[in-house]
Backbone:
């Protein structure tokens, strides 16, 4: 169990004073450049506690997996026993081709641990950044992610996304009678746990902005239509969101977490509604004879992009968050689905259905600049990392080959794709915001 | 079909036979579905037409500004010359003299836009020196232009991207002073604080962040969150 | 003239009911099923109708099946009905949930128009979550775009 409130008080970060005078460092990546080499970086096992090797491994994995770094194998390190509080022997690190060097020191302070880390710019021989943390020992994985985020931010100029979680649908059993459970894991696949029991299928999870709740759609044990539920992640307590006669589905939190937009179906017709979580009152957002679903708020909460077939095929539309002013934004070939507004506001990611294949793409909120990043027999459901520069989605095999699904990650340049490890077949990923510190 | 529907409906309501009522229901259901399909089809066609219309308008607007420019050049005895707002603005003799804030600003909107977008394109391509030069030219010529606040902000960004934090700070500070109410105002203030923090002037940075709420009560949640994060990061009280 | 037509329609319905009864006797496999049972409904009436890609209109072949269902359901009134709407795997999850609901509802509206009380019919959509047929060719997809009339016992 993760206790966010404890973390808030227990995880204190401070900026470490530089050992040498900082100057303009060379250790940078411009992610928008059309091509570049991953930055070779050496991450030394943190000194002072056996936990230090594990923390270093978390950092290595994060940085290696994001595609922008190449983690140099510790076996090739020349300088051993690096002192975290003194300048390293830069020549030794240049000798193995490192441009960045991460060192750290762990100390026991009462029941807590104090972790100091520094990122050295090996090329110019200076400290690039340094931070000190105070935390419970059980938070060691998170400390690794937070340090990896700091390195990522220092080198790319973008916020990191390693200290985050993924909610997804774990799928087991045969295609025509599959068990679908909501699971949550750390962004790197650690700490996987299930939050629904799998008796009735549950799909389409989404995090609240604080990560304390998720919303999802689940079938009931009896034959009644599936409904949207709100569940507290730690306590497991869940509540039905509103009580309507028909099906409710496709829930999404508003950016401030006070509202949930979702689809309600009545007499075969599906419209979008918004529920205020405080008063549980319901407001209608669309009113057409068409299917209106898959809503997604803009990060400032003033607009909603959604999926509708009002014009005869699935397309993307943007409207005011209170409803009204609907405007179609997708005009390319094929059908468009599952639009998701980037947390930065600069792009909308979507699923595209083109004859015999599916694609994942991005466009600007006015519909211009459409770009496809991935495609396959069935790829679906993009979700944004909190920095708005990386996407996750799922890829599914044809049902004839067992219909196994897996999570995949890709950056918005389309350069770095990789499969995200999950214990079971997995679909419908939802990327959390950065975990509150 | 239209003539049929009314008698059938009446029949369905008055005729006691269940079978008749049922076939009437099916018929009405069918008609409704057909109508719905027609509306859907027309909605799609309308959307497509609106889109095409908008594309055409944009194209025509582009062509019009191009004609205007060429005619303008011809009338001045020029040679029709290169298109405006290439990289590096033409000398003062080639560009129409503009009095800042006068109605001339209106007639020169097209070339102002082009200059801005050329600068912005350079910024996106990573040509920060070129972008700096063009944003400066833009600000000199069109200080009252609707995009002037944006240009000032991006000017700061050209320095920030090159880690020239001193000049970045000056540019963002200027942006805050002169273009406080520009749409880029909140971003500008945020970036000013961040730059101060990078320069090690934490207390100044905190002072800047503390102005954010009162100056920009309608900033987006994202911007507010960013400010909160920066305040925390810099240990502002 | 309209009267004639209506009468004719009624006659057809009665004839069809008769047909389905005589069919029972004619098909050897169905001699083991009890008339009025769930097996009777599935085998001798047909419990499902199919849809075209992305469509939710009941096709002509589906109408014939639903006409038979209505006749049977009026004879055996003890079953509440749930209509399940489903889709093939060539669509996105959420849209397919809505499309399945639309298909289930098209079946329901047809049966209601044929005189089955709406209160007797529930609908549920499984979207692409629970395919009827495992396969990834047009043959399998065609059979997964389906509305199934399920008798509750």
Residues:
């Amino acid at each position: 169990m993760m206790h966010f409130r404890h973390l808030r008080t227990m995880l204190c970060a401070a900026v470490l004073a530089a050992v040498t005078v900082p100057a303009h460092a060379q250790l940078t990546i411009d992610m928008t450049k059309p091509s570049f080499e991953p930055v070779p970086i050496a991450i030394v096992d943190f000194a002072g506690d056996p936990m230090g090797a594990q923390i270093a491994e978390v950092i290595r994995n994060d940085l290696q997996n994001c595609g922008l770094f190449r983690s140099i194998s510790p076996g090739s390190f020349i300088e051993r026993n690096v002192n975290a509080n003194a300048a390293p022997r830069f020549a030794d690190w240049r000798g193995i081709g490192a441009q960045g060097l991460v060192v750290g020191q762990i100390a026991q302070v009462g029941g807590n641990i104090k972790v100091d880390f520094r990122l050295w710019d090996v090329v110019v021989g200076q400290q690039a950044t340094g931070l000190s943390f105070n935390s419970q020992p059980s938070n060691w994985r998170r400390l690794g992610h937070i340090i990896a985020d700091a390195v990522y931010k220092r080198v790319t100029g973008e916020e990191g996304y390693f200290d985050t979680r993924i909610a997804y649908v774990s799928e087991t059993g045969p295609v025509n009678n599959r068990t679908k459970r909501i699971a949550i894991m750390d962004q790197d696949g650690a700490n996987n746990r299930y939050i629904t029991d799998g008796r009735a299928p549950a799909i389409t999870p989404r995090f609240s902005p604080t990560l304390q709740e998720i919303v999802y759609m689940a079938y009931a044990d009896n034959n009644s239509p599936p409904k949207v539920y709100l569940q507290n992640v730690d306590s497991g307590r869940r509540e039905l969101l509103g009580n309507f006669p028909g099906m409710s589905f496709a829930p999404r939190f508003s950016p401030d977490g006070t509202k949930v937009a979702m689809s309600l179906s009545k007499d075969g017709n599906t419209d979008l509604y918004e529920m205020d979580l405080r008063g549980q009152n319901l407001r209608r957002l669309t009113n057409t004879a068409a299917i209106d679903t898959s809503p997604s708020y803009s990060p400032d909460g003033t607009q909603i992009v959604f999926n509708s077939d009002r014009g005869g095929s699935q397309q993307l539309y943007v409207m005011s968050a209170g409803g009204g002013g609907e405007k179609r934004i997708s005009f390319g070939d094929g059908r468009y689905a599952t639009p998701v507004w980037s947390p930065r506001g600069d792009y909308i990611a979507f699923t595209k259905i083109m004859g015999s294949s599916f694609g994942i793409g991005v466009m600007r909120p006015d519909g211009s600049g459409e770009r496809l990043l991935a495609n396959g027999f069935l790829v679906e459901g993009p979700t944004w990392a909190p920095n708005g520069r990386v996407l996750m989605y799922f890829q599914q095999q044809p049902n004839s080959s067992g219909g196994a699904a897996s999570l995949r990650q890709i950056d918005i340049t389309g350069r770095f794709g990789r499969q995200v490890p999950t214990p079971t077949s997995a679909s419908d990923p939802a990327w959390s915001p950065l975990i509150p510190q | 079909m239209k003539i049929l529907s009314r008698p059938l409906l009446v029949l369905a309501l008055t005729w006691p036979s269940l079978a008749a009522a049922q076939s009437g229901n099916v018929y009405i259901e069918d008609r409704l579905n057909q109508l719905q399909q027609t509306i859907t089809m027309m909605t799609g066609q309308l959307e497509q037409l609106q889109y095409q219309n908008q594309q055409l308008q944009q194209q025509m607007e582009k062509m019009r500004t191009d004609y205007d420019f060429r005619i303008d050049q011809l009338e001045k005895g020029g040679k029709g010359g290169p298109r405006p707002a290439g990289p590096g603005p033409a000398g003062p003799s080639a560009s129409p003299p503009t009095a800042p804030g006068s109605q001339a600003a209106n007639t020169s909107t097209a070339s102002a836009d082009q200059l801005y977008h050329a600068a912005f394109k350079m910024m996106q391509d990573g040509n920060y020196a070129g972008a700096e030069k063009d944003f400066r030219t833009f600000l000199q010529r069109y200080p009252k232009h609707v995009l002037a606040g944006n240009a000032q902000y991006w000017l700061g960004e050209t320095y920030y991207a090159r880690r020239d934090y001193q000049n970045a700070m000056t540019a963002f500070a200027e942006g805050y002073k002169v273009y406080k109410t520009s749409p880029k105002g909140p971003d500008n203030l945020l970036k000013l604080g961040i730059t101060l923090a990078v320069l090690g002037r934490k207390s100044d940075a905190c002072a800047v962040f503390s102005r954010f709420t009162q100056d920009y009560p309608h900033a987006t949640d994202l911007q507010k969150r960013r400010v909160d994060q920066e305040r925390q990061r810099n240990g502002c009280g | 003239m309209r009267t004639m037509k209506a009468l004719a329609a009624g006659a057809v319905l009665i004839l069809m009911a008769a047909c389905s009864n005589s069919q029972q006797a004619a098909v050897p496999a169905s001699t083991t099923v009890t008339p009025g049972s769930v097996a009777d409904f599935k085998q001798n009436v047909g419990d499902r109708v199919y849809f075209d890609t992305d469509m939710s209109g009941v096709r002509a072949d589906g109408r014939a099946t639903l006409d038979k269902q209505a006749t049977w359901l009026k004879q055996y009134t003890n079953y509440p009905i749930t209509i399940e709407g489903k889709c093939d795997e060539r669509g996105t999850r959420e849209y397919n949930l809505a499309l399945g609901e639309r298909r289930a509802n098209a079946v329901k509206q047809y049966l209601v128009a044929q005189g089955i009380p709406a209160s007797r019919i529930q609908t549920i959509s499984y979207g692409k979550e629970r395919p009827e047929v495992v396969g990834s060719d047009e043959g399998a997809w065609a059979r997964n775009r389906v509305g199934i009339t399920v008798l509750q016992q």
Remarks:
- Confidence is low (pLDDT under 50) at residues 1-16, 79-107 of chain B.
- Chain B touches chain A at residues 36, 39-41, 43-48, 51, 124, 126, 163, 220-222 (CB under 8 Å).
